[in-house]
Amino acid sequence: MARSTRSHARRSQPVTFQVRVDLDDAKPPIWRRLLLSSELMLDELHPVLQQAMGWTDSHLHQFLVGENKMDRFAEQFHMQFMLDEGADGVLENRVRLDELLADPKDRLFYRYDFGDGWEHTLVVEKVLPRSGDEPPALCIGGARACPPEDCGGIWGYHELLQDSTIAHEVVPDDFDPANFSVEETNAGLRDLATPPAAASPPDGDRDFQAAATAVGWLLDRAGGHGLRLTAAGYLPPAVVTAAMDELRWRELWIGTCTREDTTAPVFGLRETAQHLRLLRRYRGQLLLTRKGAALRDDPESLRRYLAASLPTPPWWASGRYATDTGPAAPS
After folding, report:
1. Residues 177 and 35 in one domain
2. pTM of whole model > 0.70?
3. Measured at the alpha carbon of residue 185, what is the angle toward residues 154 and 38, in degrees to the nearest 5?
4. How confident is the model at residue 323 (pLDDT cuts 50, 70, 90)?
5. pLDDT at 101
6. What is the count of structural domains for the chain?
7. Tally of CA atoms within 13 A in the half-sphere of 74 that contains its CB
8. 12: CB partners within 8 A, 6+ apart
C-alpha cells in the first residue's frame, strides 16, 4: 500500500469547506453545493456524496488528487477491497479532508462505478469558520436529478435524454431529470450523521427476532424497485394494511390501519429501518440501501445487526402498544 503524500497538515481548529460538486460532462449541469466539515475522513465523505448526488452505493469508488482526473501521477485513495485486489494507493479511511483541501479553488476528484465511469469534481468555493453545533455535511443548493444507475455512463444518459423512445430497464417510469430537492437531500444527510450504536447486548440476539422478522418483511416489500411514498411522504395505505395483517399486529391496534401517520407500529418500523440505513428515501420512493439489500435474504445476520445496533428491542415489535402513540410527520 502506498504512503500518502498529503499536501497539508491537519488543521488544529476545524473549518467548513463550501464545496461545489459537479458531475463531469453533464449537460445541462448536474451539481450540488455542500458545506463539509474539514474533519471528515474520505470514507465518511463517500456516503455524503452518494446521498447528495443521489447514487445508491452499488459500485466501487475512489478519490484522486492531481492536476486533473486523467493525471497519471494523481494520488489515489481507495476502499480496502481495491487495495486487497492490488490497486496502488492509500486507504481512504486514513485520510482527512483537510489534508487534501485547504484553500478556494482546491480540487478533489471522485470516481464512482468503474464501468459506467461517473466522474465528479469537487471545488472549494469558500473556507468558513465552524461552530460546534454544525452538522458534518449540509446541502445548500444544487440542480437536476442524478442519472439512473447502470444507464451507460454520462454519454448513455445523454442519449436517453435526447431520445425518449429508447427503452431502458433502469429508468423509472416517473423519472424527472429536472427534479432535485435540498430538503430531501438534507434529510438523508441527517441520517448519515446519526449512526446506530455499535455495542451488542450479550446473548441478546434472540430478543430481536420479532423485530428482525418485521424489518425483513419491509425490506422484501421494498425489493428491487422500491416503495412509492404518498405525496405527504408516508407509506401507501395498501402497504400499511398489509404490514398490520401479515405481521399480525392488527388485533393489537385500534384503528383502520390504512394510514401510516395514525398507525404507529408501522411508522416505527419504517423509522427504524431508515435510521439503521437499511432503507433510504429518494425521489419520493423508499429504496433498499446496499446494507439493506445484503441483509434482506439473510435473516440471521439481520437479527444480529439489529441486536448490535439497538440498545433494546424496538417498542413496535413488543406487541405492547399505547393507542395514543402516533407520529407527527415522516422523516
Report:
1. yes
2. no
3. 90
4. very low
5. 96
6. 2
7. 19
8. none
> Could you tell me if residue 309 is left (phi over 0), alpha (psi between -120 and 50 degrees) or otherwise beta?
alpha
Contact status, residue 153 vs residue 117, Cβ threshold 8 Å: yes
Cα–Cα distance between 33 and 182 in angstroms, integer?
10
Cβ 49 vs Cβ 33: under 8 Å = no
Question: Is 151 found in the same domain as 63?
Answer: yes
Dump the DSSP string for 209-243.
HHHHHHHHHHHHHHTTT-EEPPTTSPPPHHHHHHH
Q: 138 phi and psi, to 5 degrees?
A: -145, 135
Is residue 212 within 8 Å of residue 303, measured between CB atoms? yes
Average pLDDT, the chain: 86
Instruction: Write 155-159 long-range contacts (CB < 8 A, 24+).
Output: 155/25, 156/116, 157/26, 158/27
Burial of 288 (0-12, 13-18, 19+ CB in 10 A): buried
Q: Are residues 185 and 242 in the same domain?
A: no
Whats the size of the chain, residue-wise?
331
Domain limits for position 40: 15-189
Residues 212, 144 share a domain: no
Residue 256 — left, alpha, or beta (φ > 0 → left; ψ -120 to 50 → alpha)? alpha
State pLDDT tens for residues 70-114: 888 899 999 998 998 899 999 999 999 999 999 999 999 999 999
Q: What percent of the chain has pLDDT over 90?
A: 56
C-alpha grid cell, residue 300: 440471521
H or E stretch at 65: strand 61-65
Q: Terminal CA-to-CA distance of the chain, rounded, Å?
A: 41
Three-state DSSP class for 91? strand
245 and 282 housed in the same domain: yes
104: which DSSP letter? T
